[in-house]
Amino acid sequence: MERAAFLHRPDSEYAYLYKADKLHVRLRTKKDDVKSVEIISGDPYLINEDKWYEETQAMKKIAQTEDYDYWLIELGAKYRRVQYAFALTGWDREQLFYGDRGIFKLTDTVKEKAENYFRMPYFQEIDRFKAPEWVKETVWYQIFPERFDNGDASNDPAGTLKWGSKNPATTDFFGGDLQGVIDHLDYLEELGINGLYFCPIFKATSNHKYDTIDYFEIDPDFGDKAKFKELVDEAHKRGFKIMLDAVFNHFGNHSPQWQDVLEHGEHSKYKNWFQIHDFPVQEGDEDSRRDLNFDTFAFTPRMPKLNTANPEVIDYLLEIATYWIKEFNIDAWRLDVANEVDHHFWKKFYKATTAIKADFYILGEIWHSSQSWLQGDEFHAVMNYAYTETIVNYFVKKEISATKLASGLFEQLMLYREQTNQVMFNCLDSHDTARLLTLCNGDKDLAKMTLAFTFLQQGSPCIYYGTEIGMDGGNDPDCRKCMVWDPEKQDLDFLSFMKKLIQLRKEEQKVLSYGQLIFNELNNDTRFLVFSRNEQDSKVTAYFNSDDTEQEVIINGTLLLTQNVAVEGNKAIISKNGFLIIK
């Protein structure tokens, strides 16, 4: 066996409390290198008295990437503490012991020594990663407020353009506002979604509002606090959750704090609120500049970076975070550029927000591996780009094989605890990316297939406004077109499909949240894949065909959703960009 491939870390995604009385233990080994793994476990104070090391329990292989196998077992412990090690058997009958002190030949002498075992010293419920249950049941709908609908012309900014009169430029305004959202809550309820994620709605100069001036005020172009309260109340009546976008990495350059720095320089009382290297500050209003003497978001002079280690900044931002929960009963924060803010601050943020609302959801915008933010004391989830980009790379861009798809998905799932994966935020497009239909070069069957695959994964799926009616658009600003409300210009077939897909997700939520992902067939030559989601007595199986070659399958269950499928009796022929989902 390849010893160098063995990997286990106590008190991590490899060993964690899943429930108050259940411990999940994982092990990594080289792909197809180990015949079986058993765990040796027992109470650390009873190893000599009970000789529990003489018994083992089999672990289950739960994932396979191109390089590794991953094994899992769920353990209980009568006294809420456990020590454990792994007994591995190779295909050549070699037997090894892997524990806290390293790798040994599997002998009684090795097993008898208490110091050789990993430990979970105590099942500390207060340390267990906990995620809000409601997130697992949520299908999100992302709204870019300036482009959803103009419901109140009286708050239009100067120079507002006629709705949908042109493809948007970076600085265009079309008058979208909160009233426009309220006017279409019935539409959203009929669509089936039950979570609304808003891009920033606070006072700012731009149309995207990521250059915040005042976090305590609704941007007047969108409405006021009374209008937002009305929106939240009406949404909650329909069972919708509300998530706002918080930009705590930087301010806008028109914020009063930054303006004070520009005016008073090193004598400003806010000079330590920002990451300033020397004075005077080099003011700039360009899109990008590298010679600044202060830190910014990217290289944008209009977005000076905050010093979130400053106690005054911490207090100010936590006041903002808690204000909108206490006064308006929002349900979640999405945190912009979350990876560029220090962990010290996010831990305080978590405590402050969840102290008010125990089931509050905290979502970080992070585009890369995020283990250090997902330990249970900062975020509940991140925007799962690494997962959904793998899906896009297989179905849309066709850059990877079916084997690589499965490998990439399992690699991401094994980075995090099971309860973390259950509440990840899965979006295929957003205000930061080209729209899905454009990525698919206008191929609506391909877009639908990609959406269907994503909705069958663990995590909470999100639809970008307009995706459900076939809207297209390239990268920013083209992905921020005005929502199309004329039914004659909407793709009603796409809308009908999305309603069915959302309904499927909600009806099969338990197996899709908790079920194991198993790839039954991965055909790299025909780009045909079969996978299932298994949870106790419930099973959903899906067949996806990305190739010109038709695929014939036997239907063994109830049809849930199909596309480009011809059914004859219990046989189904799946054409290109077709899929079949059965229960």
Summarize model confidence as the mean pLDDT: 96
- The spatial strand order of the largest sheet comes to 18-17-16-15-12-11-20-19
**Uncertain segments of ≥5 residues (pLDDT<50)?**
none
Amount of helix = 10-25%
Overall body shape: globular
Largest sheet geometry: 8 strands, parallel
User: What fraction strand?
Assistant: 25-35%
- Count every beta strand, where a strand is a DSSP E run of 2 or more residues: 26
Number of DSSP helices? 16
Cα-to-Cα separation, first versus last residue: 39 Å
Task: Indicate the topology.
Elements lengths: L14 E5 L2 E9 L3 E9 L4 H4 L6 E2 L1 E5 L3 E8 L6 E9 L4 E5 L2 E4 L2 H5 L5 E3 L12 H4 L3 E4 L34 H5 L2 H7 L3 E4 L3 E3 L7 E7 L6 H13 L3 E6 L9 H9 L46 H18 L3 E4 L7 H14 L4 E4 L16 E2 L2 H11 L6 H12 L4 H4 L3 E3 L8 H4 L4 H12 L4 E5 L27 H16 L1 H6 L1 E8 L4 E8 L2 E8 L5 E4 L4 E10 L2 E12 L1
Parallel strand pairs: 11-12, 11-20, 12-15, 15-16, 16-17, 17-18, 19-20
Antiparallel strand pairs: 1-2, 2-6, 3-4, 3-7, 5-6, 7-8, 7-10, 8-9, 13-14, 21-22, 22-23, 23-26, 24-26, 25-26
